[in-house]
Write a structure and sequence with these properties.
heterodimer; A: alpha/beta; six-stranded mixed beta sheet; 22 helices; B: four-stranded antiparallel beta sheet; two-stranded antiparallel sheet; 18 helices; 6 strands; 7% strand
Chain lengths: 550, 456
Amino acid sequence: MSSNQPVLKVENLCVELEKNHRPLISNVSFEINAGEIFALVGESGSGKSLTSLAIMRLLPEALQVSSGAISLNHQSLFSLPEYQMQKVRGRQVAMIFQEPMTSLNPVMKVGDQVAEVLRVHLGLNRKAAREKVVSLFDEVGIPNPEERYDWYPHQLSGGQKQRVMIAMALACEPDLLIADEPTTALDVTIQAQVLNLLKQIRDDRGLAILFITHDMGVVNEIADRVAVMKEGEIVEQAETEHFFTDPQHPYTQKLLSDAIPKRENFEDEALSPVQNLLQVNDLKVYFPIKKGIFQRTVGHVKAVDGVNLTIPKGQTLALVGESGSGKTTIGQAILKLVDATAGQVNFTNDQATQAINLVDLSEKAMKPFRKKVQVIFQDPFSALNPRMTINEIIREGMNSLQVGPTTRAEQDKRIESLLEQVGLLPEHKYRYPHEFSGGQRQRIGIARALAVEPELIICDEPTSALDVSVRAQVLALLKDLQKTYQMSYLFITHDLSIVPSIAHHVAVMQAGKIVEQGLVEDVMQNPQHDYTQRLLASAPSLVRQALEQA
Amino acid sequence: MIPLFNGISIYFFWTDIMIWGLFFSLLAWSRVIGRSEQVKAQWHRVFESKVAMIAAIILVAYFAIALMDSVQIHLAHANTQPGSFLDVLLAHLISATERTYSAPFALHEFTKSTQLGLNGEMQQVYLPLKHVNANASIGMQTGEAIALGLLISAILIGLHGLYLAKRNQTSFPQMLSAIWLEQTKLPWRTAYVTLTSLVIVMSWLFKLSYSYHVLGTDQVGIDVLYDTLKSIRTGVLIGVLTTLVMLPIALTLGITAGLFKGWVDDVIQYLYTTLNSIPGVLLIAAAVLVMQVMINNHPDWMHSTAERADLRLLFLVGILGVTSWTGLCRLLRAETLKISQMEYVVAARAFGVSRAKVISRHILPNVMHIVLISVVLDFSSLVLAEAVLSYVGVGVDPTMNSWGNMINQARLEMAREPMVWWSLFSAFVFMFILVLAANLFSDRVQTVLNPRESVK
């Protein structure tokens, strides 16, 4: 097959709700050639996953294709009977998903799961299937494939599970691979490895890949051609190089600028001498491992192992690291939501000249400091009690910590002004959380923290569940509030691309330890520690460029 | 004893007080939840289903009978047995006691008796029943009963229709036509049809019970209809009051275990695993026997057999409550474990909110759907449990009317030829309708309150 022959051709695809004929996808057309990686980019709800489901003919029952055609190797998919479509799925088109954890059957050996596909589709016998699986595992870079064949999914890491998924997709040598956000749940170093693997497979097998993602950095890294979707339509389609250097559509331009936020001039602020608000000295948080009938402690998980941090007043310290490195635990230890095993968290009060060690305080003595240190969470859906109105949610902290006015009417006024400050309307206070979008909920979470006039807010991945344009808004809001109230942030994130736009200082964390810490400019441009260098090298080049300009 | 007028006074047994207390606290609770738009909308959705509406009306009818049977009336002048309000309504059935079995609508006894004939010879004859009016035409009376039923339901529906019309600010005829064409959000037409048929059936039973034994009589000649109607209270009380005993235990232990974890959790888990591994019937039988001995040793505690029966019922409720909390407790523990990891609970702790407030504001409202679902589901299984326990002989007092006792007494007669089927049949039908209605209603509650449903 020559490379300019389209493997997949989607023409004027329209999908609508069966009930009221509301269009969800309108007039989507694109082609993917063999050996080409085609990226479909868009924010959540833009219809990119629906497009891929329509190709597989796996649309949910409430939806229907109203017009358009999809052909795979010149064969129209919509005219095939269901039993032939079964053969197309898996043999000619394969899919990999975002969550490798839930895509594998937890009670089956990973090797058997891949072998099952081979035996069903290619009719191989047990021995031949095993050999094929081992060679596939080898191809997708799973070490000791012979041995890993007999492992169960929980024994593998996230990246290895995704490799198994890729091996499963490749098992029947498909012509088209649909990858739906395959790296979103992975750490940046593993993401880089998986992207390289996909590129290599594309080159080796001449595979066409439909790559669905929301991450511009990943697109820049992997795609040959890009299409941007917005509200069910493709607004721009271009070669990758042209796309990034010369975006045409205003939506694309905005998406790109939001995706890689620019560095602001923090240098003067960061260097100017200010008082330190919080100092963490040699903080250790160990979780005991208990075993046996008497729950004897047999060992410890060292979640945080001797960390030193300094957060200056009115500035932001970004804490970056991969999942499981102990970032969140540090935040919780500062808030005394988990008990520190050793070390100090020294908080410098406005009035008191002497710092106070929060670790030694009792819950009662801690209460005055609860209003000084507040927290914003990652998941906007679990951060707000679904049974309380926005009013009650914001009022709770004010009542508990006795901040601000005490009468109900005055509190109502304050809640209204807080809602306005975070960009919501005063009448929103009578609503329940489920009536808001993810970004709006995150704003409510910010208003809740602001209600008690904190001096330090611990932002625990506040933007990682948000679309890039919403993320940009939330980051801008946080920066505004910092300027207005001279607040400090401890900004916990795994996303390197937002560090330059928000933080003055950065600390890099690995396995419970801080490996490097300093001004954002110094650390990002001139990393000293190997881990930092590795982390930066794994970041998509688009992000890397932005960091270097920082 | 509370005197009313003319020497009439009312008084309450312990279980009466509990059921009325529960009734009024439910009323108060419905006022409270009426304030929250979210909860109101949810209950609205429960009743949007026709099946739920029918089930609810049937349940209300059962509860109404149980409540009527839970006010004891004492008449100073009359020489009647003390009894409940329901007994007063059914006084003609109490006095209409026959000698022995008779089939529904029969004119003669079921078994032959030996009688001295006119010529002094011994005869085997079916004696006529004493309290049957053989001249009454069933057709005529049915007609009258239907007319009466239609009249009563027309009044009830009219009042409700007027209320709806006023609330929706339309005219009464417009409202009625909207209901008839099913343009209302709630299925009022279904509700009215159910209500009308229910009222007609009840007035038919009531009307005919003056002339016949509609459901026959039992071994000692007591009207089976009376027996079954009196059993409603026992069934409903066991179903409802047991939850009252079980709920605080399950809530306290479940939430404590889930929230505090550690050794508290271990202790509570061991407790319910141990309790679960003892066969329930064995534990109940042992407890009931202990109580029996205690009652026999202290005859001075009770003034009447009715009071003794009531105390035994109360005790049975307690035992059932203490043995049946484990399932709900386990569910609540798991849910609390999940919720206590939610970020809004962590946020509350970061605000220094006390544990008690975290429980009452964040955890309780978010486990309430589980409590509600399991309470409604448990109701039907408890009604059935009463029947089984009384059948085995460890249930309510033998002098108390209950479906279990009815079945127990009818058991021996099943082998008879021709069979005495009506006792068993009546107990079965009344129990079946109650349990079916409760199950259908709980199904709907579960669908609506299911958290996955409400995520949308």
